[in-house]
Amino acid sequence: MKPFFVRLDQYLIRLYLIGGYLAAACLVTIAILVTVSIVSRLLSIYVPGLTEYSGYAMAAASFFALAYTFQSKGHIRVEVLVSRLGTMKRWYVEVWCLSVASIVSVLLAAYLAKLAYWSWKFEEHSEGSDAILLWKPQVLAVVGSVLLAICCVHHLVKCLLSRPQEIESIDGRA
Fold first, then answer.
1. CA separation for the pair 76, 100 (Å, rounded)
2. pTM for the whole thing?
3. Which pLDDT value is given to residue 98?
4. What does the angle CA 49 – CA 38 – CA 58 come to, to the nearest 5 degrees?
5. What DSSP element (H or E) covers 119?
């Protein structure tokens, strides 16, 4: 690969790692919120919005972790079928799967962005006791889904630029 693509590849892998760190930070936030909720109940103190905020943090953690998980091969794959294919057939299956994943992830990101935009435009509030503007937590899901879309397209381009013989080294199995 050309030096530009190698540098871009390294930059994108670091970007996915940042998404993983953000997901971990969201999980720590959830733990803190649940702890505060438990302690506040024991002390008979009402803290509004803890349940809603932990739900938003869970959604953010899920979306931030998608690209990192995809990059590190943590998503479910049908290796039994793909490993039995020849080199060319395997390459075609990889391109097809990555194309479908890219299309679906780009559509997901676009529709989540549209949802957040309309929530912002109409100033939608949550139904919880704190009535937070919904676009604020939705933006976190948008950022995570955009990271996933970038990751899927990145892997598709990487696969398309490779020779079919290199497919094992691209996805880290050789």
1. 15
2. 0.86
3. 93
4. 50
5. helix 87-121
